[in-house]
């Protein structure tokens, strides 16, 4: 809110006045806007309509959960990270927790501030304002958030020892004292601290905090990711003692479900099994051809109780983190792979939901029970699918009629309801790294998408819906899994891209799941199928946890809560405790204190999930770079999946690896970034490299320690767009036939910043989003 004491005249403002107010305030909620302009009754309804129109026109954007700001605007004051240094040494910052397409701001020099100048990775409190060429940020103060630590590799020479950072975005090479480096060897992985104090020239000084391992260790990729992102590892002695001091479950306070023939279906290498399923025909004559579907989930709440050491460390971890060679679990192994794992033939405590579906897949009722169950079979996805496809084995053959066929028939009924609901049908081309016995990489392959995967997914989704519905009905607070609809700005960007491939999208039409699915169906078998799928994925918002429900756009559900994975997600454990409290299942349910802390818990588990996702992505990038290191010089086919001012992101067909073709290597012609056309365009000839195009590239660099891949473009650019304006200038700085290019395609002004490789390396495209 603005601090101005001057009040506007009471009454509905026009659009320009409203935008001017938001420009000054930075952001505001509808109630704040109405209060500022003194609106009541019908004027408030008119304000809502005006805000909706401004969103559709792309002039308003969301800020936080309920706030609004001018599209592309930044607040007057905010916390920002230094994200980039360009070829001229200028620093750029981005607002913390901003959306991926939020504007960056150039950090203006301020020699009057005491202490060392800001650098890459620093977190700052800044004042934002619009400048002549975009947003500017002025430093208020540096914030100490532990960014003085560097994870790096020892590089020794006869004269000195340096620490080179493994983060591609960092250029903080540290010089460490000889007294500290005597026992270190070239290639050692270390955690170092930047020494404080003024230093104007040469590398910064540092000291070694911890020796982590060796860069050529096959497991180095996950080690680096764990340390770089601060993923908690191991467990305290107190937690291990509490985990071991647990008794086997009994029938006390539980319903006996041991005769229900539950089975688990998981990845072949899974060690923890937190969900089991069973289905049977509904014998109720009022539900002809209907189905009963049971989903049983490990009762983790029986072992991890509020206020214990186990609970505190589980909350700090937030979730398990999965790497190709290891798992950093949320719970100790004695629980995650023992008492809480629904092992075949062993009694296990569970929370189960019995769901009733009619023949068209519509859920007509459900009931939760706290029970004691026993899994009748442990199957892999491939094993279950092979059995249904007519190739049963010794484990699946005896249970085909009683268990597997009913499960699949129930799923096919549920599928009718899913298709009617029309959730987003984005196809994720995930890759899987297979590790060799020696710790190296055996292969990188595309994950198979089986009907068995979709069966378990749909049954888990319906169980999650039941959890949210029950807690709402019992008026028990909960943590929802929410996924907001795409912003108008993202829809406009999508429409701009689709216009370049001849697929019309009216900017005024809403982005519903049915509309997205129609687009995906229309392009599924065409040359742009992969890139349309990718762009639709990027158009979506990120799912988060929240005590406030806005629904789940991607699944097209009004209410949704994670219930099915309490072994590996703290959010699910909170939902379990809520059900125990709401349904009177015991004294180990959600406490009043936890209810008061739900907003903080939701924010915390959202943060830990993103931390794990970033660590998993970085480890994958490093493993892929190690796999391709001995193929430098080889040629590959791929597709342009990203176009930026500094180059083209390429995704290889063979491995799904992402790397960069720097703009400076595209030839003698200067290529400018056309963001509306999603293309790099030659300033002299108008030839283009466009998003989605199939290309051939040569691998020039593969750096396992950073995960960086650099390519050389072998394919020729496409011809000039005949509808585009004719090129005005010649080759930049190489004897061209026009004036030299300056700045953003204009004569004069500062020298261009996108003609050279950016400092700090480059990051691959995001792989996907979790439901």
From TrEMBL:
InterPro entries: CSD2, NA-bd_OB-fold, RNase_II/R, RNase_II/R_CS, RNase_II/RNase_R, RNase_R, RNR_Ribonuclease, S1_domain
Entry's transmembrane regions: none
One term of GO molecular function: RNA binding
Entry keyword Disulfide bond: no
SMART domains registered for this protein in UniProt: RNB (SM00955), S1 (SM00316)
EC number: 3.1.13.1
Pfam families the record matches: CSD2 (PF17876), RNB (PF00773), S1 (PF00575)
Alphabetized UniProt keyword annotations: Cytoplasm, Exonuclease, Hydrolase, Nuclease, RNA-binding
SUPFAM superfamilies in the record: Nucleic acid-binding proteins
Family the entry assigns: Belongs to the RNR ribonuclease family. RNase R subfamily.
Function: 3'-5' exoribonuclease that releases 5'-nucleoside monophosphates and is involved in maturation of structured RNAs.
Protein name, UniProt field: Ribonuclease R
Organism encoding this protein: Brevundimonas mediterranea
Annotated gene: rnr
């Amino acid at each position: 809110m603005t601090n101005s004491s001057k009040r506007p005249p009471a009454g509905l403002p026009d659009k320009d006045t409203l935008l001017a107010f938001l420009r000054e305030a930075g952001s505001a909620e509808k109630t704040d806007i109405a209060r500022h302009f003194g609106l009541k009754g019908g004027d408030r309804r008119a304000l809502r309509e005006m805000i909706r129109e401004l969103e559709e026109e792309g002039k308003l954007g969301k800020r936080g959960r309920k706030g609004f700001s001018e599209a592309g605007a930044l607040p007057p004051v905010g916390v920002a990270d230094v994200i980039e240094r360009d070829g001229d040494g200028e620093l750029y910052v981005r607002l913390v927790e901003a959306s991926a397409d939020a504007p960056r701001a150039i950090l203006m020099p301020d020699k009057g501030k005491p202490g060392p100048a800001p650098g890459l990775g620093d977190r700052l409190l800044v004042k934002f304002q619009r400048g002549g060429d975009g947003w500017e940020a002025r430093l208020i103060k540096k914030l100490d958030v532990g960014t003085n630590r560097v994870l790096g590799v020892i590089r020794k020479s006869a004269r000195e020892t340096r620490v080179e950072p493994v983060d591609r975005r960092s250029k903080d090479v540290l010089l460490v004292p000889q007294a500290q480096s005597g026992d270190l060897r070239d290639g050692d992985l270390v955690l170092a601290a930047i020494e404080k104090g003024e230093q104007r020239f040469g590398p910064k000084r540092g000291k070694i905090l911890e020796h982590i391992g060796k860069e050529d260790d096959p497991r180095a990729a996950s080690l680096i990711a764990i340390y770089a992102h601060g993923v908690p590892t191991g467990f305290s002695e107190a937690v291990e003692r509490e985990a071991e001091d647990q008794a086997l479950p009994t029938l006390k306070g539980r319903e006996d479900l041991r005769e229900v023939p539950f089975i688990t279906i998981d990845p072949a290498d899974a060690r923890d099994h937190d969900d089991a399923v069973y289905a049977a025909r509904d014998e109720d004559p009022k539900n002809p051809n209907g189905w009963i579907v049971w989903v049983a989930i490990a009762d983790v709440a029986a072992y991890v109780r509020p206020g214990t050491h186990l609970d505190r460390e589980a909350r700090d971890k937030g979730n398990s983190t999965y790497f190709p060679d290891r798992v950093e679990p949320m719970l100790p192994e004695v629980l995650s792979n023992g008492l809480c794992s629904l092992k075949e033939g062993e009694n296990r405590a569970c929370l189960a939901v019995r769901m009733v579906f009619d023949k068209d897949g519509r859920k007509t009722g459900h009931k939760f029970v706290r029970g004691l169950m026993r899994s009748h079979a442990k199957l892999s996805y491939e094993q279950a699918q092979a059995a249904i496809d007519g190739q049963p084995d010794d484990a699946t053959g005896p249970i085909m009629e009683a268990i597997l066929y009913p499960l699949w028939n129930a799923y096919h009924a549920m599928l009718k309801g899913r298709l009617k609901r029309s959730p987003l049908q984005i196809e994720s081309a995930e890759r899987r790294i297979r590790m060799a016995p020696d710790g190296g990489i055996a292969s990188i392959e595309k994950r198979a998408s089986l009907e068995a995967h979709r069966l378990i997914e749909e049954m888990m989704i319906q169980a999650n819906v039941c959890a949210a519905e029950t807690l709402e009905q019992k008026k028990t607070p909960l943590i929802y899994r929410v996924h907001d609809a795409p912003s108008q700005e993202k829809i406009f960007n999508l429409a701009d891209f689709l216009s370049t491939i001849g697929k019309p999208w009216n900017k005024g039409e809403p982005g519903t799941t049915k509309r997205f699915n129609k687009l995906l169906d229309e392009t599924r078998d065409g040359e742009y199928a992969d890139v349309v799928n990718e762009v639709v994925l990027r158009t979506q918002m990120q799912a988060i946890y929240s005590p406030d429900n806005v629904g789940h756009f991607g699944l097209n559900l009004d209410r949704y809560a994670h219930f099915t994975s309490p072994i590996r997600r703290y959010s699910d454990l909170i939902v379990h405790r809520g059900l125990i409290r709401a349904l009177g299942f015991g004294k180990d349910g959600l406490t009043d204190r936890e209810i008061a802390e739900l907003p903080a818990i939701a924010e915390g588990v959202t943060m830990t999930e993103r931390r794990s996702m970033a660590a998993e992505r970085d480890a994958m990038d490093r493993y892929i770079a190690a796999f391709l290191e001995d193929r430098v010089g080889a040629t590959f086919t791929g597709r342009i999946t990203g176009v930026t001012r500094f180059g083209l992101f390429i995704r290889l067909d063979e491995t799904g690896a992402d790397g960069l073709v720097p703009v400076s290597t595209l030839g003698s012609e200067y290529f400018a970034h056309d963001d509306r056309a999603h293309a790099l365009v030659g300033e002299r000839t108008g030839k283009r490299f466009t998003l989605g195009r199939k290309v051939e590239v040569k691998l020039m660099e593969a750096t396992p320690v950073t995960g960086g891949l650099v390519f050389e473009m072998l394919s020729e650019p496409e011809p000039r767009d005949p509808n585009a304006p004719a090129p005005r200038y010649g080759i930049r700085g190489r004897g061209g036939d026009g004036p030299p290019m300056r700045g953003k395609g204009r004569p004069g002004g500062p020298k261009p910043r996108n003609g050279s490789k950016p400092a700090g390396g480059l990051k691959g495209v995001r792989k996907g989003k979790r439901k």
